[in-house]
Amino acid sequence: MEAYAYLLGLYLGDGHILLCKKDVYQLSLACCNTWPGLLEAAAETMAAVMPTSSVSRRRFSGCTEVKSYSKHWACLFPQHGPGRKHEREITLERWQREIIEEHPGRFARGLIHSDGYRGTNRVRRHSNGSDRWYEYPRYLFANESRDILRLCGETLDLLGVAWRHSKPNTISVAKREAVERLDVFVGPKY
After folding, report:
1. What residue ranges do the domains of the chain occupy?
2. Does domain 2-83 have CATH number 1.20.970.10?
3. Which of 40, 57, 107, 169 sits most deeply, having the most CB atoms within 10 A of its CB?
4. From first to last of its 190 residues, what are the pLDDT tens digits of the chain?
């Protein structure tokens, strides 16, 4: 179930499902080539969730598609459908919510690994005629779907992580204690 929670987060961020042949679906995740550890984690997780199906990769300029074929991907990800995710409603089934409630850290990790970022924010303050700089670590999660943003916020609440919207499509975790707490579950991409 931990693997599924992580894969659901990856799917909601950078995944899609296609009907390829009669009753055979392709689950595809687009992973940036600059994060080789993420490519490995995505492939291993996909294989753990659907061990009877092989996982393959297709390289493109700047990204790699990690994919697997199965008759059951559509059952495991009932959020699939025509069009972009931010243009349709994304709701979870009760059984999916139960998995997320049991493994919120893995789901948050999948979301952040797909559409998130952990880095250093550098801020300049002008005071008394001079500039003062300071830095602090933070997480950002950006997605155009209000439903996926809501799911991310609800999951952060489950983890006890303080967050806010820094933009309408972006969740920010910037308080020191909140970043430290989220590091326990997510950590930087690799």
Report:
1. 2-83
2. no
3. 107
4. 999 999 999 999 999 999 998 889 999 999 999 989 999 999 999 999 999 999 999 999 999 999 999 999 999 999 988 888 888 889 999 999 999 999 999 999 999 999 999 999 888 887 788 888 879 899 999 999 999 999 999 999 999 999 999 999 999 999 999 999 999 999 767 7
φ/ψ region of 62 (left if φ > 0, alpha if ψ in -120 to 50, else beta) reads left
Query: pTM score > 0.85 for this model?
Result: yes
Place of tokens 């393959």: 56
Which of 77, 100, 190 has its CA nearest to residue 152?
100
As a whole number of angstroms, the distance between CA 65 and CA 29 comes to: 6
| Dist. CA 189–CA 4, nearest whole Å | 19
Contact 103, 97 (CB under 8 A): no
